[in-house]
Amino acid sequence: AQSVTQLDSQVPVFEEAPVELRCNYSSSVSVYLFWYVQYPNQGLQLLLKYLSGSTLVESINGFEAEFNKSQTSFHLRKPSVHISDTAEYFCAVSSNFGNEKLTFGTGTRLTIIP
Amino acid sequence: DTEVTQTPKHLVMGMTNKKSLKCEQHMGHRAMYWYKQKAKKPPELMFVYSYEKLSINESVPSRFSPECPNSSLLNLHLHALQPEDSALYLCASSQTQGAQETQYFGPGTRLLVL
What we know:
The complex is a heterodimer. By secondary structure, chain A is mainly β. Helix content of chain A is 0%, strand content 51%. The termini of chain B are far apart. By secondary structure, chain B is an all-beta fold. Chain B is 0% helix and 56% strand. Chain B has strands spanning 4-7, 10-13, 18-25, 31-37, 44-50, 53-57, 64-70, 73-79, 87-94, 104-105, 109-113.
């Protein structure tokens, strides 16, 4: 079975400061990794994903995440945050074994302080 | 167009009512999903339809009845719900039911059961 751990339930950050949201996964097989963002009163939007190839993946709004197989991590980073980045961020994992479900972490609430 | 639409946006119902949630996508996706999300929690998978056939039922109580009338539509029929069923119900779709597929989420229906 696969699982995802997001240790930080809340992360407050000053505007224009860097941020890292941590995600660790557990799986005995190869996995695909996703970061979804949920803005207040909205559904989830894909931020970025790792399927294969380059371990560093980037999104169009300045976020990036690095797949680290040895540390089973997929941390999300942004060098300079903006007020509009305030949201809930979910890390998720899936694999080709089992029923291919998307397993979500418990989420990290990112709050940007002006 | 990567839009998944859901109606209604809000729904209040009594425990004896019958209501339906609707979801629509026109991306040609052949997999559609229902998730339940409680406040400050990650989405929990309820049902998956693949090529209009029920693929996964996560042991959801029978008071929730899904229906996929065609490849663009997904319904969730509600009957005799309990107050603990109050939540945000999210619909999602993906190209196919594959582990590496991106799921596109709708904005959700916020349900309150009195």
